[in-house]
Amino acid sequence: MISFIHVSKKYEKDWKALQDVHFRLDRGEFVFLTGPSGAGKTTVLKMIYMDERPDIGEVLISFNKDLAYRSAETSMSKIQMLRRRLGIVFQDFKLLPDRNIFENVAFALRVAGYSSKRLKHRVYEVLTLTGISHKAKNMPHQLSGGEQQRVSIARAMANEPYIILADEPTGNLDPQTSAEIVKIFQNINASGTAVLMATHDFGLINSLPYRRLMLNRGTLVNRDFI
Ligand SMILES: Nc1ncnc2c1ncn2[C@@H]1O[C@H](COP(=O)(O)OP(=O)(O)OP(=O)(O)O)[C@@H](O)[C@H]1O
Ligand SMILES: [Mg+2]
């Protein structure tokens, strides 16, 4: 579904953020992207949602035969179509502070042209999936960090993405809340959505059976599974 073909990337003259990164992620997989700070995790995720591009190599994304993207693509409308098929979750939630929880999730669907009845149904469906529908009328600042992350995962799921890309989604959360958030990703994955989660929290991932892509200074260090 997603292939990195010998991808290298430099942000500045000599500093290679990624070096010859080569891997494949299949439909429905759950994969952890790990490695120390500065290793290149966020850069990998940005390349999937095409916020960054390789200098060398290529990123290929293919959901089905009619929905395929290459990192050489430059048309903004095509990139926006791709992003609608991805669910993106950030460490700092990125909720709209002046809209309530319902509206934060509805926002993504309005852009996609949902009717109001279908929209309401879908918003409650995803808020229920992440266990936060009882706070639909609240504002983001009235929620704890863990609750805000539940909302941001609901928002990411609203458009029925093929994959969730999560960048340190538990980085601001305590261990118990982090485990609850990972459980939500596991449930999402069990229903068929792929999950790629960047984290350097080894305590969290060591007990879980999923494949790991480990980066160190821009290089993939565990290549055994490719
Ligand atoms: N926009 C940018 N301009 C210049 N250098 C950048 C930029 N973004 C990232 N880098 C550099 O590229 C390298 C990889 O950064 P990246 O953000 O992908 O790492 P990371 O693994 O996500 O780190 P962290 O765990 O701290 O989030 C780092 O050395 C970083 O300083
Ligand atoms: Mg990062």
Q: Are there runs of 5+ residues with pLDDT below 50, and where? A: none
Ligands bound, unique: adenosine-5'-triphosphate, magnesium ion
Q: Write out the strand line-up for the largest beta sheet, numbering strands in chain order.
A: 6-7-8-3-9-10
Element order: H for helix, E for strand: EEEHEEHEHHHEHEHEE
Overall form = globular
Question: In total, how many beta strands?
Answer: 10
Separation of termini? 14 Å
DSSP helix fraction: 25-40%
Strand content: 25-35%
Main beta sheet, described? 6 strands, mixed
What would you say this structure looks like, in words?
The chain has 226 residues and is an alpha/beta fold. Helix content is 33%, strand content 27%. The chain is built from 7 helices and 10 strands. The strands form 2 sheets. The chain has a 6-stranded mixed β-sheet with strand order 6-7-8-3-9-10, sandwiched between helices. Strands 2-1-4-5 form a 4-stranded antiparallel β-sheet, covered by helices on one side. Helix 6 links the parallel strand 7 (163-167) and strand 8 (194-198). Helix 3 (101-111) packs across helix 4 (116-129), helix 3 runs parallel beside helix 5 and helix 4 packs across helix 5 (145-157). The longest helix is centred in the C-terminal third of the chain and has 16 residues, at 175-190. The mean pLDDT is 93. The structure holds adenosine-5'-triphosphate (ATP) and magnesium ion. Residues 11-12, 15, 17, 35, 37-43, 200 line the site of adenosine-5'-triphosphate.
